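Example record for the data management plan.
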Amino acid sequence: DLISSDPTLASRVLKMCRCSARGRAANVQTVDRAVLLLGFDAVRSAVLSVQVFSTFQNMKSPGGELRSERPAFEPELFWQHSVAVATASEMLVQKSSLRHSVNTSEAFIAGLLHDLGQLVLHVLMPNSFDRVCELAESHGISVDAACTQLIGIDTHTAGKRLAEHWNLPEQLGDVMWLHGQPYASLPKMPHKALIGVVGLADAMVRRQHIVPLGHRPRNENLHDMCVQLGVDTALLDEITSVLHEEVSSRADGFGLDMERGSELLLRSISRANEVLGRINSTLEVRANAARRLSKTLDAIARFHEAASPGGSVVNVLGRVVRSAAESMGGTFFSALYQSKSNEPWQCFRFSEDGRLLSSAMIPSPAGALPKGTAINEMQLSAEIMGLLPELQDALGEIVDLSTLHMLPLECGWGVNAVLLHDGSTNLHDGREQIEALSCTWGAAVAAAAQHEDAEELSEQLAKSNRELLETQDSLARSQTLASLGEIAAGAAHEMNNPLTIISGRSQLLVNRIMDQDLRTMAEQVVQNAHRLSDIITALRMFAEPTKPSRRKINVGDLVLRVVQDVRPHSARKIDIHTVLAPDLGRVLIDPEQMACALGELLRNAAESEGSTQIEVRVQVDPFDNRLRMQVTENGSGLSPTVLAHAFDPFFSAKPAGQQPGLGLAQARRLVEAHGGQITLENRPGGGAIATIWLSDWAESMEEEPRAEVA
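Corresponding structural encoding:
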């Protein structure tokens, strides 16, 4: 009675009856006869289907969102897909053993409503769901994944909530929610087979390309799905062969304006060709990307192969230019480099093969380069750099800056580098490749900068260590000399009085003894007493050296006087040659103390084994402006032991008793009292070199003489 009272429902039921394959259907004129012919379940399914179609046909978005004139989601194709899944589900149940556990009409209704969640989202948010379909189609992902990404809810969940809102039977809600899940992962439930049937039918229909935009075939294994459901796989081919005609017949029975069987088949083939075309386009794009990536990887590999351990930043920038020329082409290459933030930039110009052509420093205004923007855009026209006169001065007029591009190199650790070039740039197709190259180049530049910093730090540490060792050695020597000085002062004081008595009494004996042998022995006592007195005097001078009394003197006169004093006392003939710098002028030193120190060096040179020539050279060192008084002899040189202990008190290379060994030690103390330094080394080719270095030698004086302040 309900159907008979609704003309629309009654006409569609009668139309379904006429489309049925059962006999004498064309003579059915009443709803009662149609129900008897089709069966109550079939009529119920038809009524529900018609109601669903009618409900969504003219529904508008409650949010007022207008639909696009050319929507990506087409409801007609959606219903075509839904009817196809419903028909396939029904045929799977009818023609297999599933008919004993699954109701045929339920399979049809479940197949018809399985994707209703998509239609709900399309009605509520038409433009948003269009973007979902476009994203799924362009990126080859499922509609659910795209929907979750853009809207925040998947179509299966939307369908489940719609079923709950409409109070649909539990099995229909579960089909709308769980279809498409692997059959083995479904929980145990009475209608698990129904969910599996709809999932298999959906996979079959997708393979036939009876789908709207974005609904590509998935990677389901139809054979495995059939085995899990107990369906003969040969049934799939049987259903597929008549599916398009059955879908067209059912749609016509429901009053849906859809394509006929042959038209639907052609549409499916056309969609399959479109999918193949998109797949081919995607594969071509990916192939091009793979070729670009391969080219980029080859460029990176060649760049690393050309690397050498410990290369400087300039060398690395040269390799970067060579790699850039191979990758991007171009004829002009320059690099801006900043070792640390807020420091001046350095501008290097390179040839295409990475040879350094020129370099220049650019002051701090170059730090105002819009580096952040450059990094975001990867490459920018260097027209903005025309605002920097410093860069124009550095590059000159050899290139038009407006033709250059700027590629920032991501270095890190506060290091900044920018590559200027006139090569090709391809931001749309090759952005990732350019970024990969720039990151590789930047990392190499940063590593070189870190290596240079480490080397500089290592040199500073080595220098500090040497200075520390020298300071420790000087401190230890000073402490030793202080202790020795105290002992020497005490010993000299204690020995001086007895020695005075011995010397005086021995001189009286020399005058009174008439026997020649006894007189000779007394004279020997006098001589050795005088010698011991000289040693005591030297000990006192060593222990408590007199502070220098500086005055301006002619250093040439001082040197000549010392040479004249030493020459007569030489045991053999020695040729002493003096070389005095012409621009010395007058120097500020204590002449007596410096003559004593220089004379000690000359005497040692004259007494050196094999020495025949001595050169005394006085000049100002051009590097540090120190006064250098150098004594060079051509003897056999000094042994390692002598070099190590020559300045030790009481050390002498001669046999014991010939010399006290205080000369060089005393000379060193006199030079150090002037704030200077004395060194001893062997000369290449033979001989030795002794040098006095004075830093404070040209100080102006207001009073003369001036004594050193204690």
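Summary line stored alongside the record: Residues 261-305 form one domain.
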